[in-house]
């Protein structure tokens, strides 16, 4: 296999630059279920960090903690020096954390463009009053952000679907639209929860290409959760493997791929 | 020869226009023409008053649609805010004698404040639970209206003596170029101007940042939060805006009817508004207007032509078995059922189908 | 001057020539509006009342009509006893009629009043609020609710075995109609020096009255004055009977209907309930107006059951006819003409079916102050037997009428 | 030779009275076989499954032409309850578990049409063996399970019906690699016990590795079909569904160039 | 003390009626996920049917009750046949509106057939009472309480021993997925509507057989039962019963002590007390006392 790296990705473990995200000792319980058990990791600037693990290992839960949807019982999460624990999801979004959802989080009744515009919500100012009045500030703002959204539409080749309600989009397109919405947020950290699940080969390749392009152009840090090992192994700089909420291994893809505990818990024969 | 590319959009501003296509421009012109001419053609007070009430209902329904259709919060408490608007008008426009624009604003502000007080309930309650709590509002309201004698006149009700003049133009007694118009004609123009205005405002709201946020909250509030929409804030905002609009409708209702009493703001009224927005189509401004016309005009039509329907009792002692009102209600109920079975998206859905039919014509698929 | 009520054959020839056509009058037929709850819970009142209007005018038309030549036609609309519907229906028919010979319900009347004033329209309210007396645009008949209440108290304290130290209570509908009864009792309390020991208000349409009845019983009420419509009254008295609560009840006229006399609670009503109203029991031969009315009912509305409200509607029509006769005499059936005529009809007599009413300009009108007390008697046609005919208390004479301050 | 368990003949399906999605599609599932259905997103695979189980109605879809036969019986347009009683179970696209009830209760709904208590208990035990994760979460509210756990539940629920014909709509979606293998083995095992399977999968490698026969659907029509082995050998299939480049070696996803491949069998 | 007990009894009787109505709401909510606004109309229909059987046709009252419940159930099931079956999988809003439409049809139908008059249902209870310990027990009230208790027990047994309860919840949550399990949504709807209608009819007749007779406004009671249903939790039958009794007691007690304790709040506070209580409880427990909460996960 190849681990080519088109982006000038900084060495993750480089001592000089502090990581953009630092997660320490994260523990999350639901009643009797321990979803996360003292998980720690750090993500460097511009790094593509993958998290893998069996179903129910706690991958999505990490995202939910980062987003402020779940409140961990223990642990700290630091983004660019600021703590995230205890903040409201919307505040965290405004700090530059964007996300795609495992089970599609598009707003079904809004068009694709509107969904993308929503990504820019925290960058816009129009309130109820100015919105109602339209002419002037609101209109200018709409036009400006629409232009920004169009760039993403172009990047992700979503042109034919602009006006289609998100609920009617073919699955693969919907997943791409989610990526677009997350990008529209102009994040500094992008969380991707199974971006190619349910996609056919062609779409998977497309998505890989977008991710590579995004990295090259924006250089933002990403955390990728995915069961498609080709994507993880080809794209990630480092991989964290979880099992039952416990980190069982961290390292370069090639290391993880051959890690016996990971093979035992997760990969099975399908490497 | 038709110009090619008449639909070509050259920039985003153009793409965002409300009446962009030639068809919709034509529609707009037709609507304005109807608006201007109708009262001079239909001078009959009955029909004018039906249309005026329908217009007032349309205003209120647009407000409810903003809350329920766009933001997904079901409210059965709309009647409460309508009533509040009417009482504010009785005070502000009647007793204090404020001019029309001011009492209208006062009513809207009153509605917004009340909405702001009730709004926080939406943070904790969802779906039907919220609906029933807002239903409680109707009953609490009725209790208040009965007991706040100084403000509402208590059980006796209060007359609403607010004038509807903007500067020298008095809509209750219009004369233009020496031609004088009846109160109902003037009111028609007034109310439907406001319908247009409110529709435009809400449409604007819906297509800008806050409107998208509302719809996002409706579709998935958790996901909305995660992408940066403060759901709670928007729910409360929607509640406030919606009740401000409801109170505006109430203000118009009160001052048109000139008298209001506590038992008018009941659950039936709330349900009627729900009927309007569902029959019209949830989440569409135009649907609210269609719905209001339907719900307002259909009973009037049945009422007018009931004597030709066999079996209807139009006067005491004649042999019919069902009263006009009962028949009216039954037909209305049947039509609602029929409608929604055929088109659960309401009138707006039918409208859409007609449009796609003509767009795809002559190909059925 | 005692204006005839248009009842004497061929009465009232028009010297001033024929009135010109106007809204609601095409030169031959006079159209009158009727706004009444023909459906809904108060339809039990609205229907017979409207039938009373109709029978009067049918009889009049059979004799030739107003001034012997103008037929009267009614335009009926259903208000369901809902004020906003009343306003809408008013708008619907006002362009077709010269006046309204019935506008039923205190709340509805209040709601339509501003429009009546603005349109210079005359309407006869089918309710007895004291406010109507001073209202130019209304043509009330009968002694107001307040007067009924006062007379009832007078009767209780003088002949009914009550004292002013008795626990006197009220149970009133929580709306304007209820306020009227309450106001009457409070006036009586001042006049006779008693205090109202307990007041229960209820919302019309309530299904369960156990609480109110329990409270009245708990307060030890010996007399309860009830202001209600029949639907509620039936449930109230039923609940009282079930709770074995047995004070003296006086019921405002619209609280009773004939169905009660055939119901399971009839024995209870017979034992404890007195109804205060006007006129006389159905079929009372000693009152001339009654014989005539029963004849006419049999002729023009044979299917109509004996009914107190029928008589009310019949009387309303009589008052309206007096106005029409006058207007024709003055040669003007326009709205102004009708209003003017209404000021000039003087006293109208109702042949013993109701107290005579001194009309005139609104601030000088003097309504009757007399009431008749009835007891429940299933053997009677309407289930009511006269207990005390047409009496007027001292206190009732004192009652002052004021203009509505809306 | 016994008749096919399922035969779809010249099927046409229209949504909303205007959107024609299946355009005369025909296929067969022989008794005791695993048949796979490949096709790009939006080709109409899910629609076909809906048509078979009678679930078009909630989507405002209609069969306008063609027939669906289950063994000897014509079930075109039949009520879903009837179809299920004929012995069809389905893993629906998007899992569609009942989020508000427990895992156990979800499994019980799968056995709704079955009567024999002992057999149901047996099926239950088997599902628990197949997905031990579910055992620990038996009393949890299903909606709180992780995505993959929900997928297991959806498969488990279908197995509870102990069907004669199992329709699977992307069963491997969101499952960990090891579990995908397990699910594949489960399918084979079930099939071995006499259940015929119609498998819709994006994971074509997995699907073709177990199926006996495959169909490729494009815009509502079958554009290619044949024994799985033949399909596996087909150049186009290899390129578009299996991701093997002509020269055999798999490309790294990081190297995919910015070009678009638009080749389709039909326009 | 007797006053207090008397009030409690009144509350219990009222609460039983609420419980029956609320139970009807819950059954329909559990299977369709919507509030049935026609419940009051069905109640009135049941009461009038009871009147027809017992008074017009002079059938023994006990049998008349059964007949009325059965025929109301038929009406409910018929509604499914004609209308609801076409709504499987359609947006809940449309279904709610359809129940409102049904109410709009039922009301005038009832008044067209039976009129507005106060009707007297021939029955053995009426205003009869028994007295014990200074408290007057209305015979009708005693029967209402007893019948409610019996129905509630039968109800729970029924759901305990059939899989219908599970089928209902599945159907309400995701009708399409339920169909895919072979659960006939139509049957579930039909059965739940039949049960709800029969419950409504039972509530209607027991009310109509009380003092004061039967008028079309009888259906309004359903509005008063909203708080009962929601306070117990929309999808919980046990909650409906609990809520009904809590609300009944609260209403009767505020009514009883209006003069002593609540005069400052205006007359007729008892009308709004159920709603106030409901609001307070919902603020503490947003899904009512026993309701289950929405499950949302991302
Ligand atoms: N809100 C919740 N309530 C209860 N349990 C929860 C909740 N959220 C997650 N869990 C449990 O926590 C564990 C971790 O779930 P999570 O969604 O993080 O898994 P995952 O690693 O994303 O799995 P998958 O690959 O299947 O998506 C699971 O067992 C899940 O059932
Ligand atoms: N309810 C609906 N109304 C209108 N069109 C629909 C509806 N459902 C599906 N479609 C359209 O039908 C086509 C086929 O959809 P279907 O879901 O059957 O595809 P699929 O092959 O299962 O795709 P995927 O691989 O994404 O699951 C798509 O173009 C889709 O947009
Ligand atoms: C005739 C009566 C029913 C009128 C009623 N008492 C009222 O004043 O409203
Ligand atoms: Mg996950
Ligand atoms: Mg599919």
Automatic annotation (TrEMBL), chain A:
One of its GO terms (cellular component) is plasma membrane. It comes from the Bacteria. Transmembrane segments: none annotated. InterPro entries: AAA+_ATPase (IPR003593), ABC_AA/LPS_Transport (IPR051120), ABC_transporter-like_ATP-bd (IPR003439), BCA_ABC_TP_C (IPR032823), P-loop_NTPase (IPR027417). The keyword Transport applies. One of its GO terms (molecular function) is ATP binding. Keywords: ATP-binding, Nucleotide-binding, Transport. This is Branched-chain amino acid transport system ATP-binding protein.
From TrEMBL, chain B:
Pfam families: BPD_transp_2 (PF02653). It is a multi-pass membrane protein. The keyword Coiled coil does not apply. The keyword Cell membrane applies. Keywords: Cell membrane, Membrane, Transmembrane, Transmembrane helix. It comes from Amycolatopsis endophytica. It comes from the Bacteria. One of its GO terms (molecular function) is branched-chain amino acid transmembrane transporter activity. It is found in: Cell membrane. The chain crosses the membrane at residues 26-42, 48-67, 74-90, 102-121, 128-145, 187-206, 236-253, 273-301, 321-342. This is Branched-chain amino acid transport system permease protein. GO terms for cellular component: plasma membrane. InterPro entries: ABC_transp_permease, LivM-like.
TrEMBL record, chain D:
PROSITE patterns: ABC_TRANSPORTER_1 (PS00211), ABC_TRANSPORTER_2 (PS50893). GO terms for biological process: L-amino acid transport. Residues 6-244 form the ABC transporter domain. InterPro entries: AAA+_ATPase, ABC_transporter-like_ATP-bd, ABC_transporter-like_CS, BCAA_Transport_ATP-bd_LivF, P-loop_NTPase. GO terms for molecular function: ATP binding; ATP hydrolysis activity; branched-chain amino acid transmembrane transporter activity. Pfam families: ABC_tran. Coiled coil: none annotated. Keywords: Amino-acid transport, ATP-binding, Nucleotide-binding, Transport. PANTHER family: HIGH-AFFINITY BRANCHED-CHAIN AMINO ACID TRANSPORT ATP-BINDING PROTEIN LIVF. Belongs to the ABC transporter superfamily. This is Branched-chain amino acid transport system ATP-binding protein.
From TrEMBL, chain E:
It is a multi-pass membrane protein. The keyword Nuclease does not apply. One of its GO terms (molecular function) is transmembrane transporter activity. It is found in: Cell membrane. It holds the Pfam family BPD_transp_2. Keywords: Amino-acid transport, Cell membrane, Membrane, Transmembrane, Transmembrane helix, Transport. InterPro entries: ABC_transp_permease (IPR001851), BCAA_transport_permease (IPR052157). The chain crosses the membrane at residues 12-29, 57-79, 91-116, 142-159, 188-208, 238-257, 269-290. One of its GO terms (cellular component) is plasma membrane. One of its GO terms (biological process) is amino acid transport. Belongs to the binding-protein-dependent transport system permease family. LivHM subfamily. This is Branched-chain amino acid transport system permease protein.
